[in-house]
Write a structure and sequence with these properties.
With 306 residues, the chain is α/β, with parallel strands linked by helices. Helix content is 32%, strand content 23%. The protein has helices at 9-19, 32-37, 41-47, 90-93, 101-116, 161-173, 188-194, 206-219, 252-261, 296-305, and strands spanning 25-30, 55-61, 69-75, 77-81, 120-131, 143-145, 151-153, 179-184, 198-203, 222-225, 243-244, 269-273, 279-280, 290-291. Helix 3 runs antiparallel to helix 6 (161-173) and helix 8 crosses helix 10 (296-305).
Length: 306
């Protein structure tokens, strides 16, 4: 809920360091030089228009006992989204401080783990920057090459969340976790489909999807599973790269999920598109206007159920 000029990438890193303390928890906040060394090309590309340096937050929970499971949580941390050179209309920017809600949910979830004494290893990944149309901003037509050698042609700089999540997903996949879950305020299309109270759920592994649906139901958060339609991959084909960062006029939430899927390999993975329920436009029975913390209850329930 802080103004975007306060809640910068640096601020988000500081919050992670402050709140993610305790037995078993360790937090790393990578600066731009480290991000360059780790070749996180998507995060660097989105950050190019900004005066604020990016950060990559990595939080690890290591239990005292031998872990039964190894889980990766990934959250989108766009601290303000102007759309970049593909500039949003002014009205659409008014609440774009919410675009780091997925990252905030991962930080909040990780901060709970020392109190729960779980026998699982959990690593949280939060790539964070703002997305601004500065003089050096990435341009439509640019191509980004990722850690897993996949390339994305950027045709719309306002579809930036998937560009930074791809870095984090590829990095997390290298560690071969038992499950990967990402949260992101990713698409307006998901809000059109499901409204402001329901998150879209996509998964390549039905047992993982079923577990998340149960945990959401138990904790009062609403998820609805949407399909990963293989035929829609044609919509994200590029003539000069492996894929492009936008699909066609339809099924925007699905094509965005299909882009993310390119970076998880064959690992069990779930994507929560929380663009609707992450931010309440007005006071309601669940809480005040503003950030809702959507996803934290579901994730904590899921981790405690393993």
């Amino acid at each position: 809920n802080e103004p975007p000029s306060v809640a910068t990438a640096r601020f988000l890193g500081e919050q992670a360091e402050e709140h993610c303390r305790g037995r078993g928890l360790s937090t790393e906040v990578w600066n731009k030089k480290k991000i360059e060394a780790m070749k996180l090309a998507g995060l660097l590309a989105v950050n190019r228009g900004s005066h604020e340096e990016p950060r990559f937050i990595k939080i690890r929970y290591q239990p005292a006992r031998r872990p039964k499971n190894k889980i990766a949580l990934i959250g989108k941390g766009i601290t303000f989204d102007s759309g970049g050179l593909s500039l949003k209309p002014a009205k659409s920017m008014e609440t774009m401080k919410l675009d780091m809600a997925g990252g905030a949910a991962v930080i909040a979830t990780m901060s709970c783990l020392p109190k729960l004494d779980l026998d699982i290893e959990v690593t949280g990944y939060v790539p964070t920057t703002d997305n601004l149309p500065g003089h050096n901003a990435q341009k439509p037509g640019d191509v980004i090459r990722y850690l897993n050698s996949k390339t994305i042609e950027v045709l719309n700089t306002d579809a930036e969340g998937r560009l930074i999540l791809a870095d984090a997903l590829a990095l997390a996949a290298e560690q071969k976790p038992d499950s990967m879950i990402n949260l992101a305020t990713l698409t307006g299309a998901c809000v059109v489909a499901l409204g402001p109270r329901v998150s879209g759920l996509f998964s390549n592994h039905q047992p993982l999807a079923d577990a998340l649906l149960r945990c959401a139901n138990d904790t009062g958060e609403k998820l609805w599973q949407l399909p990963l339609v293989k035929e829609y991959k044609d919509m994200i084909k590029s003539s000069i790269a492996d894929i492009k960062n936008i699909g066609g006029a339809h099924a925007g939430a699905i094509t965005a999920a299909l882009i993310l899927q390119e970076f998880v390999g064959d690992l069990p993975w779930a994507h929560l598109d929380i663009a609707g329920p992450a931010f309440a436009e007005s006071e309601n029975s669940l809480g005040p206007k503003g950030g809702t913390g959507f996803g934290v209850r579901t994730l904590v329930k899921f981790l405690t159920s393993l």
